[in-house]
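Hi F.,

I've been meaning to write this up properly since the lab meeting, where we talked about keeping a consistent format for the predictions we share between groups. The idea is simple: the sequence comes first, exactly as it goes in, then the structure tokens exactly as they come out, then a line or two of notes. No screenshots and no reformatting. I'm using this chain as the first example so we have something concrete to point to.
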Amino acid sequence: MSIDIKEVRKDFPFFKKNTLAYLDNSATSQKPDVVIKAEADFYENLNANPFRGLYQLSIDATDAYEDARRTVQRFINAASRREIIFTRNASESLNLVAASLGEMVLGEGDEVITTVVEHHSNMLPWTHIAAKKGAKVKFLECAPDGRFLPEALEALMTDKVKIVSMTHVSNVFGRVNDIKTFAEIAHRFGAYFVADGAQSVPHMAVDVQQLGIDFLAFSGHKMMAPMGIGVLYGREEILEKMPPYMTGGEMIENVSLDGVTYAKLPHKFEAGTVNGAGAYALAEAIRYIEKIGFDSIEKRELYLTAKAMEAINKLPYVEIVGSRDPKERHGIITFTVKDMHPHDIAGRFADAGVAVRAGHHCAEPLHQFLGIPSTVRASIMFYNTDEDIDRFINVLKSINDTPKFEDANRSLFEEVLMDHKVSPGHRFKMIKPTNKHRGVNPSCGDDIYLQLQVDDDGVITDGAFIGDGCTISQASVDIMLDMIIGMKKEEALSLKDKFLGMIKGTASEDDIESLEEASVFKDVSHMPARVKCAVLGWHTLEEALKAED
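Output, unedited:
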């Protein structure tokens, strides 16, 4: 069945009210009206604590919650409803299996294998439990297009390997990994196999029995369900042996002062009040997906991906990360643009009403492995339109016209920034401040706590800062302190005005020259997303001089 996109989009309140071309679907999906109403329906008509009461409303809430569990079981073809554990999200699911399975099977000198492409949620839980148990994490490396070779995994396998964990679909490459084959290899060596299905379950049929995997984690919010509901599938015979992840209400049979008997599956792993409304709405999201059909979903997403990539392949300044074959992308297109920072690229898209994601996409080790600091990602869902893709491509076509750094200034800019990053003169310096202020730039994670020592004559006699964030913000404040120490407050504020004028393009050549080393920031205006980073220290200076202890 082909998708009537105009009719489908009528199902989504978001698209009725917004003209945004939403291409950040790998981060979270939009929600159809039936899902939004299902969550509201639970609170309006079924709002009692499941499992806790003998009155009819509580019984109805329990039935709705368990019906949702059976819906998930059928959706991924689990053998039993007892194999479906409700969590908050895929991250919690992966933390649960790492902590509990890891506690059960890992010992000193044992090994866990995961891969370099993983989302942090399928990497950090394993490094954490391995450190706790004295085990080691080994990383399977991929080809530049994201492919993993079975023989590479076999080469890493030994009798020390107890767990292998791998994403089903990479959130950077968009490539489907052959987890059935990799699970078979793990099992042949006596290891368990864990799959991260966060990017696969919303877009393709996943049959856990056919794949032969031991565990599967996924989130509801990426498949049109509400935020705050996720799933861990685990084979029943393994879950039975695993210790609880959290303890508290409802995950026990009985408790005495002398001990505890834990509840049967799946309740052993669902401590406390459950997210009944979230599970209820997740079941509705599954029914909506099934109504559309995965055949139609995959065809639609491939068509849109192919359209976008056909245009991208004609732009020599755009570099695709991974395969250029749209059949191997599954709606995820990750790229860089020559001589432009991904945040500035994303800013240009945002200005044009197109939502994409910039950064390392919670896969920082992969970017380090590829030698790329960060990337831009567009991610497609079946409800996207041809117009969304056209708008995306139009921005990419015009983006190369963006003014860039003058070549002579770029090398000096990078040299100065690196010098102040490696050897900051004023970071963490101990002084007795008379004036201080904290400045924050949430969009880049910049956080500067500026401290100044000002004498009775209004002269800034010393300065220091404590800070986190990007190189630009840290270097800018360090250079600023080099310049203002020894100045009167009024002179420092005048210097601030000149710096801001330079960034805005209103400063004279004499003013720019008077800024000395700080003048390397004159072309930052060509990188709109970095302007806030560069000026943060100067705005913080102004506030600090107003705030005397």
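Notes:
The chain has a mean pLDDT of 93.
DSSP finds 20 helices and 18 strands in the chain.

If this format works for you, I'll send the rest the same way.

G.
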